[in-house]
Design brief:
The protein is built from 19 helices and four strands. A two-stranded antiparallel ribbon has the order 1-2. It is an all-alpha fold and about 500 residues long. Helix content is about 65%, strand content about 5%. The protein has one domain (about 5-465).
C-alpha cells in the first residue's frame, strides 16, 4: 500500500498520517511522495536484510521471528504483496531454506541436538491436537487451522532452530534482531499507509480484510525486551544508541497498534528479568541497576505521551484494559463449564478448536487462553504435555543461566531467551490459540537445543582435560542437564602447567 495503484486509491479514501499518535490527524502535504519514499526505503532495507540472511544463519532466524510484521511492512509498500497474500511469507521461508543449504554446503550446519526432548514433546502435542479432529466439536475449523498453520510450524519451529548452532550464535542473533526489529518498527511507524481503525494501526489489504495489529504489537514487545535486557557494557559502540532507538520505536509501535497485552507483557518481562540480566556483586552495580529501572519507568511514561493521542487513547484507558481481561476470563470459564458438562470427554478433552462451535457468551472463534485449551480441549494428555514442556523450559533456562552467569554478555543473552519465552507464554494466554504458537514453541525448542549443545561441548572439554572441576554449589542448583545428558554447568579451567 506504499506505491498505491491509482484505481485502488480512487476507491479508498487516503488515510491520514498521525505522527506518533498526536491528538490531531495531520494530512501530509506531499502524501504520495512521502509514501513512495518510505516504500522504497522499506523494500531496499528488507532486500538487503534478506540477502544477508541467506549468508548469515542468525539473520535468517531474525527474519523468521519478525515474519508477520515484515509481511505487513511489505504489504504497505508494494501492491504485489497485497495481491499475492502468501508472497512475503513464502519469500521468508525460502530464505530459511536457502540459509540452511548455504550452511550445509559450507560445512557449518550443526545437525546434532536438533531432535531434543523439547522438540519431541512439541511434536507429540501437535500430533495429539491434530488427532482430536476425530472427536472435536469443530472438525472443519480444526482441519482449516492445521492446513493454514502447518507450513509456519515447520519453518519456525522445526527448521529455524537448526540455524542456531550454539551459544556463540546468540550474540549475532541478538544484534540481527535489534537491527531488523528496530528497522521494521520504524518503517511501519513512518509509513502513512498504516492508519488508525478503532484505535489500532492497520493496513487495509483489500475491501474485506486488514492486517493484524497484534503482530506489530508483538514485534514492539520483542524489541523492548531486547533493548532492556542487554549487557551492561556493550562491546560494539553503536549498540547503545541502537538500544535507545529500539526501546522508543518498540514501545511506540506497541502503543500505536493498540496491543495492550503485548505492551504490558513486555514491560512485565523486562522488569522481572532485569535483575537476572545484570550481575550484581557490589553496591555500585546494585545502584546502577536501580538507575536503569528509574530511566526505564521514565522512558515508558515519555514514550506513552508521544504515541498515545486522540486516535488511540480509548484503548489505553483502565476500563478498556479491564474489559479485555474480563473477556478472556469469561471465555475460560465457558470452556470449563462446557467441559465439565460432558463427563465422557474428561479424559481426552473436547478436542482442539472445540471452542469455535460450542455455545459461548462471547462467540469468539477461540478462547484466547492457551492453558484453558490444554486442559479442557486436550484433556489429561494436554495437561501432562503442557506441564512437561513448562518443566523442561524452566530447567533448560536455569541450567543455561548457571552455566554462563559469569560472562556478562552470555548472561544477558540467556536472560533474554528466558524472558522471550515468558513473554510468548503470557501472550498465549491473552490472544493465543495452540495452532498459532510459533514463537512460543520456537523458544522452547531453542532453549532445549542450546542446553544440549552446551552440555555436549562441556563433556568434550572434560574428556580433553580442558576442565578439571565442577563447582559444587552449581551441582546443587539443578539436577542435571536436559535431554538425558549427565553432568553439571559451570566448569573451571584446569590449572596451567607449573601453577602452584
Amino acid at each position: 500500500m506504499g506505491i498505491w495503484d491509482r484505481a485502488e486509491e480512487a476507491a479508498t479514501p487516503p488515510p491520514q498520517w498521525v505522527p506518533f499518535g498526536t491528538a490531531d490527524s495531520i494530512p501530509l502535504p506531499n502524501r504520495r511522495g512521502f509514501s513512495d519514499m518510505v516504500s522504497i526505503l522499506t523494500l531496499v532495507f528488507l532486500g538487503v536484510v534478506f540477502l544477508v540472511a541467506i549468508m548469515r544463519p542468525a539473520w535468517a532466524v531474525a527474519v523468521v521471528l519478525t515474519m508477520f510484521p515484515t509481511e505487513q511492512a511489505l504489504q504497505a509498500s508494494a501492491g504485489i504483496f497485497r495481491s499475492i497474500g502468501p508472497l512475503a511469507n513464502f519469500t521468508i521461508a525460502s530464505i530459511v531454506i536457502a540459509s540452511i543449504a548455504m550452511s550445509f554446503l559450507r560445512g557449518t550446519l550443526v545437525w546434532s541436538r536438533w531432535l531434543t526432548s523439547a522438540m519431541l514433546l512439541v511434536a507429540i502435542l501437535y500430533t495429539y491436537s491434530a488427532a482430536s479432529v476425530l472427536w472435536t466439536f469443530s472438525p472443519e475449523w480444526l482441519s482449516e487451522y492445521i492446513r493454514w498453520t502447518s507450513p509456519y510450524i515447520f519453518v519456525i519451529v522445526v527448521l529455524a532452530p537448526l540455524l542456531v548452532s550454539g551459544m556463540g550464535s546468540l550474540s549475532e542473533l541478538r544484534a540481527a534482531l535489534l537491527v531488523v526489529g528496530t528497522g521494521v518498527a520504524l518503517l511501519i511507524i513512518a509509513n502513512p499507509n498504516f492508519q488508525f481503525v478503532e484505535g489500532r494501526l492497520v493496513v487495509n489489504v483489500d475491501a474485506d480484510s486488514r492486517t493484524n495489529p497484534l503482530a506489530i504489537g508483538q514485534l514492539g514487545g520483542l524489541v523492548v525486551l531486547l533493548s532492556i535486557l542487554g549487557p551492561a557494557k556493550e562491546t560494539v559502540r553503536f549498540m547503545v544508541p541502537l538500544r535507545i532507538i529500539a526501546f522508543t520505536a518498540g514501545l511506540g509501535l506497541g502503543f500505536m497498534s493498540g496491543s495492550r497485552g503485548e505492551v504490558i507483557a513486555a514491560l512485565f518481562g523486562a522488569s522481572v528479568f532485569l535483575p537476572m540480566a545484570r550481575k550484581i556483586d557490589n553496591p555500585a552495580q546494585f545502584f546502577a541497576t536501580i538507575g536503569v529501572a528509574v530511566v526505564f519507568v521514565a522512558g515508558v511514561l515519555g514514550v506513552r505521551s508521544l504515541f498515545v493521542g486522540a486516535d488511540n487513547a480509548d484503548r489505553w484507558s483502565s476500563e478498556s484494559i479491564l474489559f479485555g481481561s474480563a473477556g478472556r476470563l469469561e471465555n475460560a470459564m465457558d470452556l470449563a463449564r462446557l467441559y465439565f458438562d460432558r463427563p465422557l470427554y474428561w479424559p481426552i478433552g473436547l478436542g482442539s478448536a472445540a471452542f469455535h462451535d460450542l455455545p459461548t457468551r462471547s462467540g469468539d472463534p477461540y478462547s484466547h487462553v492457551i492453558v484453558a485449551d490444554l486442559i479442557f480441549e486436550l484433556g489429561i494428555p494436554g495437561v501432562l504435555i503442557g506441564l512437561s514442556l513448562a518443566y523442561l523450559t524452566v530447567r533448560n533456562s536455569r541450567a543455561l543461566f548457571w552455566r554462563v552467569r559469569g560472562d556478562v554478555e552470555q548472561r544477558a543473552l540467556v536472560t533474554f531467551l528466558a524472558a522471550f519465552a515468558t513473554y510468548q507464554f503470557i501472550l498465549a494466554n491473552k490472544a493465543g490459540m495452540l495452532w498459532a504458537q510459533y514463537d512460543l514453541c520456537f523458544s522452547i525448542v531453542l532453549l532445549g537445543r542450546l542446553w544440549a549443545l552446551q552440555s555436549d561441548a562441556d563433556a568434550r572439554a572434560i574428556a580433553a582435560g580442558e576442565f578439571d572441576a565442577v563447582a559444587e554449589d552449581d551441582q546443587e542448583a539443578f539436577e542435571g542437564p536436559a535431554d538425558e545428558i549427565d553432568g553439571d554447568s559451570t566448569l573451571r579451567p584446569s590449572p596451567s602447567p607449573g601453577a602452584a
